[in-house]
Structures are given as structure tokens and as C-alpha cells.
Amino acid sequence: MLLSLNLLKKYLDLPRSITPEKIQLGLTKSTVEVEKLHDQGKNLENIVVGQIKKIEKIPGADKLRLTRVDIGESELLQIVCGGSNLYEGMFSAVAKAGAMVRWHGQGDLVRIEKAKLRGVESQGMICTASEIGLGNEFLHQEAEVMDLKLAKLKPGLDLKTVLGLDDVVIEIDNKSLTNRPDLWSHYGMARELSVIFGSKLKQPKSSIDALKSRKVGCLSVGIDEKKLCQRYLGAVIENVSIGESPEWLKKHLTACGLRPINNIVDITNYVLIEFGQPMHAFDFNKLKPESQKSTRQPAGKIQNKVEINVRLARLGEKITTIDGLERKLEKDSLVIADSEKPVALAGIMGGLETGVSQETKTIVLESANFDAVAVRKTSQKLGLRTEASVRYEKSLHPNLAELGMQRALELIKQVCQESKLIQITDANNFSKKEKAVELDYDFLVKRIGIDIGKAKTLKILQSLGFKTTFHQKTEKLRISIPWWRATGDVSIPEDIVEEVARIYGYDRLLAKQELVNLEPAKYQPRYDFELKIKNLLSVGCGMAEVYNYPWTDSLILEKLGIKEKLVEILNPPTEKNKFLKNSLVFGLLQNAEDNLRFFDSFSLFELSRVFSLGKGKFDGNDNLPCQPYKISGVVVGDKKSNLFFETKGVVKGITDLALAQILPRASFKAGNLPEFLDQEKSQGVFCVNDMIGYLGVLNPGVCQRFDFRNKQVVLFELDFNLLERSFSEKQTAKYKPLAKFPAILRDLAVEVDNSVVWQDLRQVVDGVYEKEDSLWANVDSFLSAFDLGNNKKSVAFRMKYSAGDRTLTDKEVVEIENKILKKLEIEFGAKQRQ
Amino acid sequence: MINLDNLKTRARAELATARTNDELEAWRVKYLGRSSDLSLFLRSLAEKTLEEKRELGPKANGLKQELERLLFDKQKIAGTRQPVRSGFDITEPGKNLNLGHLHPITQVKNELNDAFKFLGFEIYEGPEISSEGYDFDVLNFPKDHPARESMDTYWIKPETDVLGNGLKRLDLRPHLTGMSVRYMQAKKKKEPFRFVYPGRAFRSEATDAGHERCFYQYEALIVNKDISLSGGKILVTTILERVFGRQVEVRMRPGFFPFVEPGFEIDMQCLNCSGRGCSVCKWDGWVEMMPGGPPHPNVLKAGGFDPKVWQGFYINIGLDRITMMKHGIDDIRLMHSGDLRFLNQF
Questions:
Q1: Which residue of A10, A389, A536, B63 has the fewest CB atoms within a 10 Å radius of its CB?
Q2: pLDDT digits (tens, 9 = 90+) for B301-315
Q3: Is residue A302 over pLDDT 60?
Q4: What residues in B contact A547, CB-CB < 8 Å?
Q5: What are phi and psi of B26, to 5 degrees?
Q6: What is the average pLDDT score of chain A?
Q7: B103 Cβ under 8 Å from any chain A Cβ
Q8: What is the C-alpha separation between A230 and A211, in angstroms, rounded?
Q9: Chain A closest-CA separation from residue B107 CA (Å)
Q10: Which one is predicted more confidently, A543 or B48?
Q11: Per-residue model confidence (pLDDT) at position A507
């Protein structure tokens, strides 16, 4: 919203010391956020009125013209200009060398110098409005330079003087006004400023007489929807002459970003910005008369009777609004109708047909109160937001309609002195009862945190328009809410806390240490675990953590052949992003592809929620889908490298961290794997009997749908919640006494068929002495495996032998070794390699 | 009697030619050792007249100090440039440990978790697909609040809502605040509490360098029988000082959010210019950090806490924003780019 400082000052005696910057700070700290100040005359030095005397083409330039411009100096200026609306004799704004302009209305201010354009000297610039910061005041097409059409223009006059640009426009952030209908006007803001700066607020002039019901009987107002329209004031004024508004009126409107149209429309708009009451004027003679038979009479003599009905639109009704668009109405839209059809969208926009035009002689002036929700719903359905609807949406008070009507009548009388008010009707049914809040003074002190004093508290509230009664004995405050704050904004004691504290000044509140009950420290292993896992993967394994969106690209789903039903977004960011991921792998594969443009080998991980259709378990009484956390990774590198086993090591690291005390630890075996994986080169990860995830590579068919630049890509995905649960239940490690007698380490290498797998081999080896009480012979570590040809391979591993009561002799060890080799020969036909 | 000036000239010249540690040591013995000319001379001063002592003492001592300093400087240089022998180049780099990278938002989140845990806060998390009931109804959003419209919130397609919520629509949570009511309701005993709930939230809006559809927040709520606006202020200051590691000036000003009463926008004095105004704070001197305020009575009520007895204070920190500020990141979309050129910087 734009505020004109000049207009504010009409109602406010501000000392000179209160600069626009102080107003900005004051409003921001106590009321609403000021986005920026715009001093109209600022940066208009060296910009003068110039008259274009001659326009010539420039050879080789499409849009540029060479102009000669009179700026009141002895010689014409030569200026190269690309304006699309140039004509000879045109008055425009000319920036002389030294002026500051904003190129195409954007970026920083640039100093104008004499320059050569297309080899032609240009001695200045003919400006568009936005190039000299007047875009708000002078709306224009992009390439159009200013076309000044004022009286008394003379080349060389200062533009600032000619345009009377002596105002400062204050731009308010609309979002911070959501709950304050009273601030959508200059008067409301002036009231706020009067409290902030302790200045006097001038009351608006009002003549009670003006609103005394005068009945000629030419207008009847009927309200069908009493809940949606609590008040409708209609006035009939005849002998109105439509014309241009006086300069002062136009200046206020343009300062606030509104385009002057004609005196009547301008007055309704002016009341809107001055008091925040939206108004509308109908052409009386274009409203369908009540009686079908009567015909229109010559203007000036009213014999017809028109009716205004506030009702819901009927099925199939349409209206063409003043913006020229035909709009189909839905059944529950609130409209203003004459005896035949809708003539305005209540609280949003009037109809084209019945609007004020040059021929209008008699008007029906509307100042009404419409329901916030009804206006908002219709405005949303039609996609039509107007200065009127944004105000009604905030919930206005019916009293405001009266204030608006008074002001409009006063202005119309002032601007069209011949006009005559012949009827005014006030249809209403609203409660005039004052609303009040009661609270203990102590409540205020406790909530604010300091006692600012009773007198000061009452003074603040009174200056804001609240009426206060303080009961000395009980220390209870009764606070009556002024009508302009009573439509929902202020209704509970907490609202009063805000009023007092913000005017007193939030920055004067001390940062006070609270007295807090001593509580036991929270033990939350889940977060320790998250930290540990992330540190393991980053610092420990050299992986980089990525964050991806929760939605997936449907192209990836297609490539992976995902057919499951996924959770779907009703209004997705884009059509191809409508599904929510049930696996983090989708995003990581995309990351892999993207990063391969710059890196040859890397590894990434992500810890995040995924989504699926089952029922999830969360605090709260609603039923929500499953949203488990997954910890997933992608490892990318050279085809020849040992990436699968590197990744397997990473996965084992994660499970060891989580399952340290659970025996047996995680195991790797065949399981129910996603179809996009190469079933031979992928494994399930199991904890006891539960599959908690997998690792592996994409199957070749799927893989070739991605552009992996001939690199190897290994994936893993684990259920984080399961891991985290076992981590949380994990028991403290118990110390085992160190072995009294040293163990003996010996390497073994055997030749077996390629079909024999390490896991089975190891199980057999470990099983040989499993049942012995004080003799242990186990695999200490895997060493290597390589192909021998003939479908045979060599497998080498290190054995560890020990006994509980003695150091084993070489002889004993060889015996044990032979026993193991014998077993391997029986089971696998293994032969020892020398 | 020796000539101190000659001695100095000779010592300097010889030091300049010394290359190895052995040569330096030989020089030291010759000019500064116990039986060097200078040492002998200094010892002999004891037998000189007072006048001679006054004249020669400081001069000889000065020379000794000067030579010691020259030697020290020379040793320093020699220490960093050892001669290359037998192909052992000590300047070659050490083993390259690839330490990996945590996402910058994770790093800032961890710091905040630390700070809040230190203050006795519990960490909590909730569902990312939530419902209109928790994200709007219980938070005192009027039935017709614009944020309920599809332009701001991502709604879940009803067909996938097989769970029978009926008219209660499911959404991708547009903020974290709904979680606070889940937490309060789940609390069996109504007692004071303080907790944080970091996470991501989603809004249906156009993205650019400053706006994301998926963004990260860090919200905290403290509820007790006696938490005032002043109490909230110290909470804010403590947290910001922890994150930025220095004293900060905080400003609270009015702002409107349905679930707080009164509502605040909380600004921090720009750290870049100390409030004088610069391009970081858009010449304002202040940077908007977070909204906050005491929970609206209706919100406490929805959580099962009697607003007549309990008070509280919310703060909500934009994690992306604070991370961007901390590292000078100028495009929020980089956070979701998965681009290692970005991630490797942290």
C-alpha cells in the first residue's frame, strides 16, 4: 500500500523534526513494516521539460531516432532516442548531462553524459517515467517516453516544479497489514502515527445533517443476505457534471498509484485511500427502473424509481465488469442487482454498463459493508483482486460506511457545486454494542515481563482509542474496543498485551532471564546416531551429503521401471514432479549423472524421509502415510575399480555402528531386491531375519538409460529407523579379559571351483572348532581371491588359532590346519595351494 | 684490545656464506662461543676503569645481541629450506585424506542442536506429510485464511489418501508449527517443556535466488507458567549469539501470524556493517531473522494446555537463510542442486 505524506499531514500535526525516515522507523518498530520511502522530487535535478522540434531517422538503426529538442536554451539539443511514441511538438522529460536516471527503470542510478550512439552525438536523454522514478505516478508502456500534456508547459522548466512533485510516498508491506483493517487508509495510519509521535490527530469533518434521511422515494434498498451485508448506504445525487478532477485530488491519487478517471470515480477512490471505505457510483439512469412500464425520462427530472438488491447471484447470471471482462457468476457470489440483473460484484468491482460515464447526470452512490469471507471467496473464484476487495477481506466495520458516505458527499458538493443530494437511504442491521475486554493488571505485567506503570498503560490505550476503566481495588481493567479495531483484530487480553507493549516499545523490554525449573537432561540417542552416521560417511568414508527434493522426476521413475503406486501431489510444482519418492536412490542417480559432468569419481549420501501409501505412526490424531527415514548413497568411479566392495565396506560400517552389540551383526545375502538392480551384483542387507536394505548396481538394461559416461555406479539404501532403533537399544560394551596366551596367525590359500562363495567357505572353516571349549580356530580376515582359469579360483585368508590354557605349539597348529583343510576338501573339493 | 667494528664486519660476511647447520654452528662457536673474542672481551671489562666500562660495555653487549639476532634469523630460514638429499623431498604433501562434506545446512543445524541441547531443550521431529487439521485448524488460522488456498500449500491427491481422513486434507507441511501441537498433545503430563523441531517445509511458489519450494526451518517452543516477552527476547539473543559466535543486537517489531499473540518479526543488527547500512542489509542496518511470539491461547488450548495457566514463546529460524548469511551464499537453489562444486566448499 502506498501512503502520501502530504495526505497524512492533512490529519496530523507533525513537528518538522519528524522526518520521513523517522516515520519509517516509528511505523516499523511499533506497527507495520515500511518497505521503502520514495521522495518524488529526489533525483530530478537537471531534468527539464523539452519540446521535440524535429525527428529524423538514423541510417542503419531500426528503432533509434535523432531528435532535436528545445530545452529553453539558445541552441537545440541533439538527442538519440528509442521512444516508440515520439512525435514532433511533443513535450517530454529531458535529462541533461549530469542528471541521474535508471536505465530502463532498473538497476542503479546512472549519470547522463554526452555520448555517441550509432556514431551520432547525443547530448541528453528523453526519458520514460520509470527511468526517472515516476513509474508509479505515470503509468506507461515499456518503450514510451513521457508525453506531457499539462497546461502552461514551456521548454526549460524544471520537471519537478511543473509536476508539483513535493510529496514523499511511503510504501507499506501489505503482508504486515493482514490483521489491521483500520490501517488500510491514510486516516488510520495518521491515528497510529499520532500515538507513536504523541502528535494531535485532527478529527474528520462531519456534518450530521448530511446523512439525515431524505426521502424522495426514487431509490429503495433491499438486503436479501443480511449476514453478508450488514449495512448499505445509498445516496441519489442529481445534476452531477462529470469532468476532470481538481489537481490536488489527482495528485493525491497518483501519489498512491491510482489513475485519475473522472471526478466522481476519483472521489470514490479518494475516500478509499483516505478512510479505507470502498465506494461505488452507479449511473442512476442506467439502472433498470422498478416498474417495467415506466420509461426513461429526460435527465434532470427524476420520476423513475430504481431498486438496489444485495443478493446472491442466480444460476447462469453474468456481468461485464468495468475492466471490460464478461464474468460468469456462481450461485454463492454476492452481487448488487437492480430490478433485473447484477450491476456490481459486491465489494469487488462495478459493472461496465451501469458505471459513470461522460453523459451521467444522476448517480447512485454506494457505501456499504460486505462480509469478508464472502468477498474473498468470490474474488478468489474470479481471480479478481481490487483495492476494494483487499480491504473488505480484512473485515471492515459498518460504521466506516457512514464515515465514507459523509466524506464523499462533502467532496462531491465541493467539486460539483451544482449537484444536489436528493435521497439517502441507510439499510442496516448490525449490533451497535461496544465490545470490551477485561483483564487483571497483573496479567499485563506478567506477559510483558516488566511493569511499565498503570498511568502509562492507560494513556497508551486511550491514545489508541480504547476506553478504559480501572478498578482500583481488584486491579481489574475493563477496556472498550473502538469500532475500527473491533472486527476481530482486538478481542482477547493477549491483544491488549500487544497494544501496550508495541507502543511502549519492544526495544525497551529488557532481556530478562527466566526462572526455570531444573529439568533432567534429555537423552536422545537418535540424534547422536544421526550425527555419528553422518560423520562416518563424510569424514570416515569421504562422501558428500546432498539434499534433494521430496518429489521425484517421473522420467527417472520411467527409466527405473517403477510401477508401484506412489503418494501423489494434487498441485505439484510441475506435472513431471507429481510423485513423492519412496526411495532416495531416485534423486541420487540424478545427482550422479549431473556431477559426472565435472568429476570422475565421487560418492554422495542422503538421509531423508521417503513416502509410501501404508499407514505411518506419528503423534496426533490424524491418519498419515508411511514416512520412514532412509540413509542412502551412490558411489561412482572407474569401471576397473573395486567399487562394489568399497561400498559394501561403507554399508558394513553403518551397520556396525548401529548394531554393535547385536549378534550376529548385519549379514549380506540374496533378498527381495528392487527390479532395477542387477540381481547377480546386488545383495540384501539383513539384521537377524529382517531385510533392512540393499546394495548393488543397476541392471545393464536400466543402466544404459542413464548417461553415466562409462563409469561404474554402486548404490545402497538402508532403513534408518530400524538402524536407529537398534542403536538406541544397544547395550554398553562389556570388557572381556585379554587372552592370557598369544594367538597364532597363519595364512591359508585353497583352490576351489568358481561356484564356491566366500561366505559358505568361511562358515565351514569357523564351524570346525566351533564346539570346542578352550580351543579357537577362526578366520581372522579375508586376504584375496583370483581366477586360476579352468573354472577354478584361489582364495587366501588368514587364520587365528589360540587356546585358553596354553600357547599352541607349531605341531598342534598344523594338526588343526590339516583338519580344516580336510573338511574343506570334503565340502568343496578344495585343495591347499602352496 | 679488539676492534668491535671490524669484528662485526667479519662476522656478518662469514655468516652470509654459511649454508648448512654445521657451518652455522661453527660460526656460532667462533663469534659467540665461550672463548670467542667477543666473550673474552666482555669478561675482561671487569678489570677496566669505570669510564671504559661505561663506554665499551654497552657497545660490546649491543654487538653480542645483534650477532645473536642475525644467527637466529639465519637459522629460521635454514629451518624452512632444508637441503634436498637422497631424493627425500620433505615438501611433498601428506597423504590425501578425503574427509567428505556435510551439507552446510546440516552443519548449521548441528550447531543449533548443540546450543539448544545445552539449554535443556529436547529435539523432536514429525511427519512431513501432515494434515490441514494440524497445519491450519489447531493453529488458529481462520477458516478462510489465504494460506489455506492451493497457491501456498501442496496438497496430497485424495486418491492416495487411502487412510480415511475424510474431509481433513493431507498436505506437505507448509511450516513446522503444526508439530508443536502434536508434541503438546502427546505430552501426558502437563508440565513445563522446551523443545526444538528442525525440518523442511514446502510451499507452492515460484523459485528464484531467494525463494525455494522446499526450505529448512528450525523452530523452538518453550512453555512454562511464567514466560514473558522479555523472556522470549533473551532466548532469541542467546541463540543468535551462539550461531554467529559474537554479541548481536536484536530488535523485535510487530508482525502478524495467526498462531502467535502478539506476533513478532525479529531483526538482528547487520553483522556486516554493524548497523551502519550496507548492501547485505539493503542499507537498513537490520536483517530480518525470524518470526516469533507467545503461542495464541487457542493454540495452547488445542495442545491441551490451559492458556490461563501456561505461557510460552515460539521462535522460528530460517535455516537456509541463516546458512546463506553465514557463508555468503547468494542462491538458495544451490542447496538442492546436489552439485559437488558447491558442496565441496563446506
A1: A10
A2: 999 999 989 999 999
A3: no
A4: 103, 105, 335-336, 338
A5: -60, -40
A6: 89
A7: yes
A8: 18
A9: 10
A10: A543
A11: 82
Q: How far apart are CA B106 and CA B277, in angstroms?
A: 30
Contact A494 B297 (CB under 8 A): yes
Enumerate the residues of chain B whose CB falls inside 8 A of the CB of residue A31.
254
Q: Shortest Cα distance from B340 to chain A (angstroms)? A: 7
- Cβ contacts of A542 on chain B, cutoff 8 Å: 97-100
Specify if B96 maps to a domain.
no
The reply to whether B245 and B318 lie within a common domain is yes
Looking at residue B336, which CATH number applies to its domain? Answer: 3.30.930.10
Cα separation, A676 vs A585, whole angstroms: 11
Among the three residues B80, B115, B134, which one is the final residue of a domain in this structure?
Answer: B80
| Mean pLDDT (whole number) for A293-316 | 72
Is any Cβ of chain B less than 8 angstroms from the Cβ of A594?
Answer: yes
Nearest to B261 among A494, A548, A604 (CB): A494
Q: Cell 551383526 appears where? A: A665
Q: What residues of chain A lie within 8 A of the CB of B227, using their CB?
A: 514
DSSP classification of residue B260: B
Shared domain check, B166 and B277? yes
> In chain B, how many domains are there?
2
d(CA A690, CA A682): 17
A109 touches chain B (CB under 8 A): no
Question: Would you say residue B94 lies in a domain?
Answer: no
- B258 shares a domain with B194: yes
Residue A364: pLDDT over 90 = yes
Q: Point out which residues pair with A158 in neighbouring strands.
A: A48
Phi, psi for residue A664 in degrees, rounded to 5:
-75, 155
Interface of A with B in 540-569 (CB under 8 A): 540-550, 565-569
For chain A, domains (ranges, CATH) are 2-27+171-197 (no CATH), 47-165 (2.40.50.140), 208-428 (3.50.40.10), 435-503 (3.30.56.10), 525-729 (3.30.930.10), 744-832 (3.30.70.380)
Q: What are phi and psi of A267, to 5 degrees?
A: -65, -40
Sequence-distant (≥ 6) Cβ neighbours of residue A705 within 8 angstroms: A559
* pLDDT over 90 at A310, yes or no: yes
Let me know if residue B91 belongs to a domain.
no
Q: Are residues B299 and B163 in the same domain?
A: yes
Q: Is residue A236 within 8 Å of residue A362, measured between CB atoms?
A: yes
Q: Do B205 and B320 lie in a common domain?
A: yes
Three cell numbers, residue A293? 412500464
Looking at the fold, whether B15 and B137 belong to one and the same domain comes out as no
Assess if residue B154 is contained within a domain.
yes
Is residue A395 within 8 Å of residue A372, measured between CB atoms?
A: yes
pLDDT tens digits, A435-476? 999 999 999 998 888 899 999 999 999 999 999 999 989 989
Are B213 and B260 within one domain?
yes
pLDDT, average across residues A565-584: 93
pLDDT at B85 over 60: no
Rounded Cα distance between B230 and B215, Å, is 29
pLDDT tens digit sequence for A706-719: 999 989 999 999 99
Whether residue B303 sits in one domain with residue B248: yes
Domain membership of residue B316 as a residue range = 104-343
For residue A572, the chain B residue with the least C-alpha distance is B154
Q: Where is pLDDT greater, at A618 or B88?
A: A618
* Binding site members of A for Mg(2+): 489, 495, 498-499
**Across the interface, do A449 and B229 touch by the CB < 8 Å criterion?**
yes
Taking residue B288's Cβ as centre, other Cβ atoms within 10 Å add up to 17
Flag whether pLDDT at A295 surpasses 60: no
Neighbours of A62 (CB within 10 A): 7
- Closest-approach residue (CA) in chain B for A550: B214
Per-residue pLDDT band at B243 (split at 50, 70, 90) = confident
Mutate to test the interface with B, among A546, A604, A607 (most CBs of B within 10 A): A546
